[in-house]
Design a protein that fits this description.
This protein is α+β, with helices and mostly antiparallel strands. The protein is built from four helices and four strands. Helix 3 packs parallel to helix 4.
Length: 163
């Protein structure tokens, strides 16, 4: 008799636990999907037409990230991300740097930034995949893209300094 009571209690506890987990997960998934949909819709409908620019400070190697987007019809139609040195030279145009980076990581700076720009235009969001071999560049891209989307939502065409 004791065994039946213990077994029944364990069975009841197991069913209760599974039911609670199932309901919570379903609610979280639905809530997350709703949040993503609302964010995507809000970003797409609230962008104001114009040209927006974001920059970082110069890094220890003398480069700063520079990102410019153009919004037309409420959508990002152009995205140009690169690194610039104090003389205004672009990293994507530095043949030696690109050759060395591709030899080490499998992708050049130019190819990485071109890929990030294309993904951003397609997604219309800063939520894009990291480019393998260009993790630091991908992180900087995401930071500047987020700042630019915020600026475009506000209609702020001043250059944004991203930390």
């Amino acid at each position: 008799m004791k065994k039946k009571i213990v077994l029944a209690s364990m069975l009841f506890a197991s069913v209760l636990t599974l039911a609670a987990c199932g309901n919570s997960s379903e609610k979280e998934t639905t809530t997350e999907a709703t949040k993503v949909e609302q964010t995507t819709t809000a970003a797409a409908t609230e962008l104001k037409d114009g040209t927006y620019r974001a920059e970082t400070d110069f890094d220890e190697r003398g480069w700063k990230a520079v990102h410019t987007i153009t919004v037309s019809g409420g959508k990002v139609t152009e995205s140009t991300f690169d690194y610039e040195n104090k003389d205004g030279a672009l990293k994507s145009e530095d043949e030696e740097y690109n050759k060395n980076m591709e030899a080490k990581s499998g992708i050049s700076s130019k190819d990485a930034t071109d890929k990030l720009d294309a993904e951003f235009l397609e997604a219309q969001s800063a939520d894009i995949e990291v480019v393998s071999g260009a993790t630091h560049t991908s992180e900087n891209f995401k930071k500047t893209a987020e700042a630019l989307l915020k600026a475009a939502a506000e209609g702020n065409t001043e250059t944004i300094l991203v930390k």
